[in-house]
Amino acid sequence: MTAADNPQEYIDWSNEGQPATAPWRSANGAPAPKRVVPVDDTITADAAYRLASQGIAMLWHGDFQNARQILTALEHRTRPKPDRTERTTAELFYRYRQNRSHRARILGHLLIPLEGGNIIGLRRAPDVVSATVDAYGSITEASVVSLHEVLGTIGAHQWRTKGIPVAALNASVYPHYGTFFPVRSEYVGLVASAPLAAPKVAFDIGTGTGVLAAVLATRGVPRVVATDIEPRAVASARETVSRLKLTERVEVHLTSLFPDGRADLIVCNPPWIPATAHSLLDAAVYDPGSRMLKGFLAGVLGHLEPRGEVWLVLSDFAELVGLRSRDDLLKEIDAAGLRVIGALEAPAVHARATDTSDPLHAIRRNEVTSLWRLTAREPTT
């Protein structure tokens, strides 16, 4: 379900003794806060943290830059304290996720008004029209949004404006808000270098920005069908295909998993961590119970041409933190009627693998992304 599928929510508060209400907007699918109080420049960071910790959201009526200072102070208060206790990788991951959830909850409780025309109705507010249109669409009535989320839309818009270079394409992609940014080059490089047996049709399942579909097309696949369940991803992928002048080879469909028909090659880079996503943006990484992975494996043979090949691109991060074993993955592949005919591996080269300040640095530096080459298991006699 996308943010647009949710019914409109409203928040209510009291303004100088008079009831007030406004539509709630969240591009990340965050629910509307139940309790809201108006605050201004006189509130202290400690008082703001106490309110947020009690689940009380604060609707800012003061200066925008002062609101940013309060948000920064809240962020400092949510940073994990140094922990010298010896812990297992599973415990480290659990503490990391717990802190991230707490941080998102606290920071999401500082709210600002977003007026018609996508203008922030506060003193000294920046121009966020382009960034917020990307995330929310055009705002026609005064609404309330999370300041933390709005700042995220600004960062995302900067990425979209600048573009993200993709070496395998010798070009940049310009991701829409809410799609997975292809800043992890490992999975793209694997698809760009894996042995390709001249398929006539390829499917790219869960295409995101369309980068893998574009790689397949530039490698000579005459027809690529890319799918995604998220409308923003479909729009982003179509733009990528258009910018790269690949529209004659690549088509993009809004659908869950597979398009109609069969393909000689089916590629999927599913979310790789079987844990709960805390936002729509998390859904490209976190997949509770490995639902997409299992759904893909269970259905792929029904869309694979005889002697066709499946490329499953997956990080082993879940294995490193004890959420899934290698044996579990191989059993899922076998249960789907598939067998492994080869695998390519790429060590982690993304920025977080070298960030020693990351609580999970010791795990991330050992992460390996694999491209599993699969085909239909031969029937036993």
Automatic annotation (TrEMBL):
Task: List, alphabetically, the Pfam families matched.
Answer: MTS (PF05175)
Where do the Methyltransferase small domain residues begin and end?
200-317
UniProt cross-references to CDD domains, sorted A to Z: AdoMet_MTases
Keywords annotated in UniProt: Methyltransferase, Transferase
What GO biological process terms are annotated to this protein in UniProt? methylation
Which terms does the record give in the GO molecular function aspect?
nucleic acid binding; protein-glutamine N-methyltransferase activity
Task: State the residue spans of region: Disordered.
Answer: 1-35
InterPro entries hit by this protein: DNA_methylase_N6_adenine_CS, N5-glutamine_MTase, SAM-dependent_MTases_sf, Small_mtfrase_dom
User: Mind telling me what this protein is named?
Assistant: Class I SAM-dependent methyltransferase
Q: Which organism's genome codes for this protein? A: Cryobacterium luteum
